[in-house]
Structures are given as C-alpha cells and as structure tokens.
Amino acid sequence: MKNPPLTDHNKRVVIIGGVAGGASCAARLRRLDEHADIHLIERGQHVSFANCGLPYFVGGIIESEHSLLVADAKLLRSRFNLRVSTRTEAVGIDREARTVMLRNLETGLETMEPYDALVLSPGAAPVRPPLAGIDLPGIFTVRTIPDALVIRSWIEQTKAKRAIVVGGGFIGLEMAENLVHRGLEVTIVEMLNQVMPPLDEEVAERVAIRLKEHGVKLALGDAVAGFEGIESGQIRVKTKSGAAHEADIVIFAIGVRPESSLAKSAGLEIGQRGGIAVNSQMQTSDPQIWAVGDAVEVKDFVLGGNTVIPLGGPANRQGRIAADAICGRASTYRGTQGTAIVGVFGMQVAATGASEKALVREGVTGFEKIYIHPNQHAGYFPGAKQMHLKLIFRTEDGRILGAQAVGDEGVARRIDVIAMCIQMGGSVFDLEEAELCYAPQFGGAKDAVNFAGMVAADLIRNDMPTVHWSESSNAGTCFLDVRELAEFEEGHLNGALHIPVGELRERIDEIPETSDIRTYCAVGQRGYLATRILLQNGLRSRNLSGGWLSR
Ligand code: FAD
Questions:
Q1: In the structure, which protein residues have their CB atom closer than 6 angstroms to any atom of ligand 1?
Q2: What is the pLDDT of residues 137-169, one digit of tens each?
Q3: 0.85 cut: is pTM over it?
Q4: How many angstroms is it from 63 CA to the middle of ligand 1?
C-alpha cells in the first residue's frame, strides 16, 4: 500500500546530525511510527558514514571511500522514507515557534523548518587550540571523509616521509599506526606521561612498548607550544619543553569538544563539562527537544557524576532511546561506562568502567586491584598468547569498578564480559562463577574472566593476602622468589631469597622471621601457592600481584 499523504496529524521530527546518533534515531523512529514526517539534516556531504573507519582509510587498509558509507542518503530515503538534506546546516532554533532555521550550504538559501519534536545529534568537534601556526597547511584533524581524503592526497602530493601525531589517545594511536602502514616515520607528542589517557599508566606502558617496537617515537610529558613553517615546506612542531620536531604532515588529535553551540544559543541547559544536559530519556531542558551522542553529558555509570564520553556505541543506543521517548515509550539510558577498544599494531587495548587514577581523582577509597596474565586459550593448544588484565573492585562487597586489558588476542571478549557484569552491578564473585564457553582453541576451563574473579575473590576473602609492586618495602621485608632456577637467573629482585615453590615445604626454615614476606613468581600463581603454604605454617606472607610480569 502506498504511504498516505502527510497530514496535520503526522508528527514532524527534525533531526540535526545524520551520522551515528542521528541516523540511528531516524531509523528507530521510522520503525516505531510509519507515518511520522522525519527530516534528517546533515551539514556534511555524507550521512551515516563510518567515522571509526577513517584512520584505516587514510592507511589504505580500507581502500574505497565507498566502504565508509554505511547507508547513503538514497538508501535512507527509500528504505526508511526519510527526508534527508545534506550540505544543510541548522543555524538557529526558535523554541517558542518550534522551528529550526536551516541554511543550504550550496546556495546559502535559508528556510524555516517546523517541528513537533527536535533531536540534536551534532557530535563533537576536534579540539584546535589557538596555538601559533595551527592553521598552517599540512596540519589536519580527522572527523569526516573529506578530512581523510585531504590527508591522503597531502601525503601523496608532498611524498610525506615524516609525521607528527599530536595526542596519544585512541584516534592519535590509530592514525600513527596507519601512517606507519603508509611508510611514514611517526612521532607522537603527548602532554601526559603516557599514551592512552583512559588507561592506568602501568597498562599504557605495554602499549608504548608495542608502539616503539614498530618504530613509533614517543615524546611523552611534553605539550605542543606552536607550529612554524620552514623553508623545505615542512612544519616545525615546537613543544613546551623547548624541543622541536620537523614533519611533512601533522595530525592533531588531542580530543574532541561537544558541539553544543546551537543548543546553547537556543537557551538549552548546558552541563558543567560543556555537553548538552539531558535526562535519562535523552530529553533536554526543553521537553520538545532531545539530544544524543558526543554532544551530550551523560551519567558516568560507575562514578555517578556527569561525564562526556565520545563513543559510537553510546551514540547509537541514545539515538534509539530518544526515538522511543518521542514515541511515548519508557526506555531510559543507563549511563556510559566507557567500554572501548583500540588496535595498536596487532595489540588489542581495551577498557571498561573506572580506571584506578579516575577513582583516586574522584576521591574514591575502599577499592583494590589485581593483575593477571593468562593466555587467551588453553596453553597447550597451538597459538596460545598471553594477555595482561587489571581488575579494579570494591573491597567491601567485590563490586567491579573497572577493567583494562591488553594482548594480541581474546582481549575484547574478556572486557565485554566484564563490561556486562559491571552493567548488571556484578561482583568479582560473579566473575568467579561465570559460566563461559570453553574448548581449548577458544578459552580456558578456567577462563581469564573466571581467573580474574577468583584472584580478586581470594584477595577479598583474605585467602591470598596481596601486595603490589608499587607499595614500598622496609628493611625487614623478605622478597621470596619461588620460580625455578632458570627463571631466577634470567632476572630477579636484588637480595631476593630464592626457593622454588616445589622445595618450599622442606626449606621453610630458611625463611627469616619477619612479618613482611612478599612472595613472587612469574605471574602470581606459584606465589599464591607459596603464600598459602607459608600462612598455614604460621608465617605472615603476601603475594605480589601479577608476579614478576607486573613489576
Ligand atoms: P557524529 O557521528 O560526529 O555526527 C554528528 C554529525 O552532525 C556530523 O556529521 C556533523 O556534520 C553534523 N552536524 C553538526 N552540527 C550540525 C548542524 N548545526 N547542522 C547540521 N548538521 C550538523 N567510537 C567508537 O566507539 N569506536 C571507535 O573505534 C571510534 N573511532 C573513531 C575514529 C574517528 C576518526 C572518529 C572521528 C571518531 C571515532 N569514534 C569511535 C567516535 C564515534 O565516531 C562517535 O562517538 C560517534 O560518531 C558520535 O555520534 P554522534 O551522532 O554524536 O556524532
């Protein structure tokens, strides 16, 4: 049957921003309301494109621009019966009259668009501080397909050999990898002392090692102060420490800022972090206007306060929730916990929930952490690869607060399971008991996730008193290395007493009487057994979490 013509009773929904949040909102709305008049407005040339694929398009791994178009305007029109206006910018909102002023960016023509419901999904723009020389040719940010095309042609035309990536977050790292893939020599300049700011420093250190193994130079703890064009046509990047790096191309990736100016000029409430304020139904301070995606402030699922976390998954889910709310459904958004993954030269780097440093920054106490280094599948099955996982939890009840992991395989699956457990309010005891799929080529009978839960639960139950390498020792501390001789000889703590765990029962008298025995092995497992032996022989011992590999 043909669609009936629009009448006064058709709900008019205008959506500003036609990519992740906006397009998903439009599609959901159409599924819920076949008769609504849905108008998707997009400033750029493309709707519903894969911004997450842009670094790989620059690197040539994604070869065709066409592959980045998840759904083009034609498909959105035919499949979802949407009105789609590209190269059209929303420049003003009249909340009284319920109209949006649209400007056609090709013709300059301005038109007024009435709405019953308005959805804002304008995303976030790359931060470009007013540094000297920031507008020099050859300095780029990455947000759109045209951005990626310009970067590609700049590299080709200038035959670029050296690149500076400013910012060591996930877009910076993806760009660095892809520029290396194109044969460029890359230096990352990062203000913090670590790459991947959402991770804790000791986890990020493993990522830094992988970057260096692939020839990426790191200038950490140094902020860019300005840029200068030099005669050779190159750009000189000057830093606060006084250093200078020369390059043919600079990628600026120091983060993004919510595009909240349209909302602000319409008098909508803006949160403390600069994002549009919304309630759990993604409704703004105006009940006829919803906002979703990178432009909004959301509840931090773990820490509870407001936050801005620019990620594709939350933007898509929020788009659906706004559509539900517009159609009178009761869906609510639970908050964002920052579950994210990035690939770095074959290494999977993933995290969910709060980091240790975020907890410290927020003044949260009463939490503990453990480190484990399990294989992604049974060790005896060919191709076993080690991963490194940090789990953070409340000591009072074991509730999981966050996890971070790196490794060549199997990382995403473990972080996803833990992410779900966090969302369900789960604890380390739930991880201990989680029933997960197992065959030797896929996992372990005690999966890495179970294992993390068991180690954390042992700590809480005080079956395994634990100490961290970062905790200071005193003159009376006895470090007990319980690895085999060959391992000990490869490297050990100065002054450590060496008794392999298999000999510990017979040689227990060699251990000096002290209240501070710290056992360690390679990854923590034999250290745990040694700790149990010592405890049951009346000695006071603690296991060094994660063993030698975590030091
Ligand atoms: P966007 O997808 O940015 O869409 C907003 C759109 O609104 C833009 O196209 C903009 O042109 C348009 N717009 C803005 N203002 C107006 C206006 N006034 N009028 C008309 N149109 C307007 N997230 C992940 O989870 N995983 C990843 O691997 C990942 N990789 C990424 C890689 C890159 C290079 C980038 C840039 C982002 C990446 N992200 C990733 C983040 C993810 O893409 C965003 O979180 C997501 O796209 C946000 O959706 P959104 O709808 O809020 O904004």
A1: 16-17, 19-22, 41-44, 51-52, 54-55, 89-90, 121-123, 142-143, 171, 259, 262, 293-295, 310-313, 315
A2: 999 999 999 999 999 999 999 999 999 999 999
A3: yes
A4: 21
